[in-house]
Write a structure and sequence with these properties.
Length: 113
């Protein structure tokens, strides 16, 4: 499995565990958005959206910058790739276990026709 800080992995998966945060991430990966523009889409307070953005930022999934009075958020593709890489590593372990089971079944079938 690729080396990754377990605290970082926890932060990434915690951030992605929420539907609203996943939606925000999809939007900022498609292009930069102000936090105000992000908040307009959701039936929640601006402060609640800011908290979701903060969780994504803390996990490293997005970055914010100031432009005058606006906070602009952009998705971090490299962070998303690290999540994908972690999942691919887990999938490889799973596939290895399935292959081992298949081998055991094949051996059993040849020994007990």
């Amino acid at each position: 499995m690729a080396e990754i800080d377990e605290d970082r992995a926890d932060a990434l998966f915690h951030a992605l565990a929420d539907r609203t945060r996943r939606d925000i991430l999809r939007r900022v990966l498609a292009g930069e958005h102000s936090v105000s523009a992000l908040a307009e889409k959701y039936d929640m307070s601006f402060a609640a959206v800011q908290k979701h953005v903060a969780v994504l930022e803390k996990a490293g999934l997005l970055t914010k910058r100031r432009d005058g009075r606006q906070q602009l958020a952009t998705g971090d593709v490299a962070a998303v790739r690290s999540v994908s890489s972690m999942l691919a590593d887990i999938e490889q372990i799973w596939r290895g276990r399935i292959a081992a089971i298949d081998e055991l079944l094949a051996v059993e079938k040849t020994e007990n026709p």
